[in-house]
Amino acid sequence: MYPRPFWIQRVEQAWQEAPITWLCGVRRSGKTTLANDLGADRILYVNCDLPAVEDAVRDPQVFYRSVDKPVVVFDEIHQLRDPARLLKIGADVFPKLRILATGSSTLAASRKFRDTLAGRKRLVHLVPVLFDELPDFGGAPLERRLLHGGLPPALLADAKKAAFYREWLDSFFARDIQRLFGFRDVNRFSAFFEYVLRQSGGQFEMVKAATAVGITRPTVESHLRALEITHAVTVVRPFHGGGQHEIVKMPKVYAFDTGFVSWARGWEPLRPDDHGPLWEHLVLEHLQARFPDQPIRHWRDKSGNEVDFILTRGRDEVDAVECKWNASAFDGAALQVLRSYYPKGRNYLLTPSASPAYTVRDGKLEIRVCAPSRLHHQLAASHNAVPKAIR
After folding, report:
1. pTM recorded for the entire structure
2. For the segment 78-91, what is each residue's pLDDT rounded down to a tens digit?
3. Which of 83, 99, 125 is the last residue of a domain?
4. Domain limits at 110?
C-alpha cells in the first residue's frame, strides 16, 4: 500500500462542496486502493461488479438506512442499471452521508446519468503517479516512471513486461469501450488506439489518421471521443486570439501514460532523445492534477513556432509553460513570438532538475525555471501579485 495524500485531500475537499464525489480515471490507476485508503473504519465499500449488488441497492432508501458508516464507496458504479437514481436519493434523503462513486469514464459516457446529479457532485480525475509522488512509491526513479508509466502495477515492476500493456488494452476495450459505446470491432479500435499512442504529443489530423488506420473520418471522430471520455487521451486544443498567423483548429492529442507511449513506440531502453517527449506528457499530467478547473491549451503559429502549454488568466493574459528535460537546451525564440502577440503573463520552464527554482532572462523575457512540484506554488504567488506586462 502506497499512500497518495494529495488525492485523499482532493476527495475530502470535494465532499466539502457536494455530497457526491465522482472519482474517475483509467483502469488500474488506483481508484479502488485510493477509496480504501479513506479508512476502513469510515467507509462501506460496495463492489458494483458483483451481481448481488444490484439486488442490494434495488430500494435505495432501505439500503442507505442500513449503512452504519459515514462514507459509502460505490466502485465501478456505472455497472448498475440505474446508478443516477441511487446517487440522487443518497444525496437528497441522507444529506449527512458522503458518497464516493468510481468509474473509468466521465459521467458523460453514459446516458444513465444525464443531468440528474447537477449540483450534487464534484469530479476528481485520478491520473497516473505524478512526478512529486515518486518518493511515496518507494522512491521509484524518474527514468522508470517514464519507461514503465505511472499505473502503480507497472511502475513498481522490476522489469517492463509487454504482456501487461497488451492485457490492459484488451481489458480496456472489453470493460469500458464495448460496454459504454457499443463498438464491436476490437481490431479496428485497437489499431486506432495504437496509432494514437505512437503519435502521442503531436498535432492530430483527422484525415491523416483515417488514412493511416484504414477507417473513415466519422469513425476516427467517434473513437477519439470515446478515448477522451474514458480519459485514455487528453485532447489539448490550440489557444488563439484571432491572430492571422496562429493555428486555430488543429489539436494535439496526448495518451494518458508514458509507459504505453514508450511501449507502442518500441522505446526500450530509452535513448537521450526519448526523454523530452515523455517528460512533456508527465508535465501535462501534473497540470491536469494540480489545476483541474483550468483549461490547458497549446500554441503554435503557421511558421512552426510552438509553446507547449498555455494557461489563461484573463482576457489577453496567459501563462506560458515550456517543458525541457535539460534546461540548458531551451530555446526561447517561440516564446518571444508568443509574447509579441500576448505580452501579459508569466513564463515557466519546467525541468526535472530545477530545485530550487530560479529565474533567467532571455532578451526582454523573464522565465521562471522550476520542477513541476513547485509550479503550483509559483502560479499561486504570481496570481496573487499584480500582473506584470512584459514589454
Report:
1. 0.93
2. 888 889 899 999 99
3. 125
4. 5-125
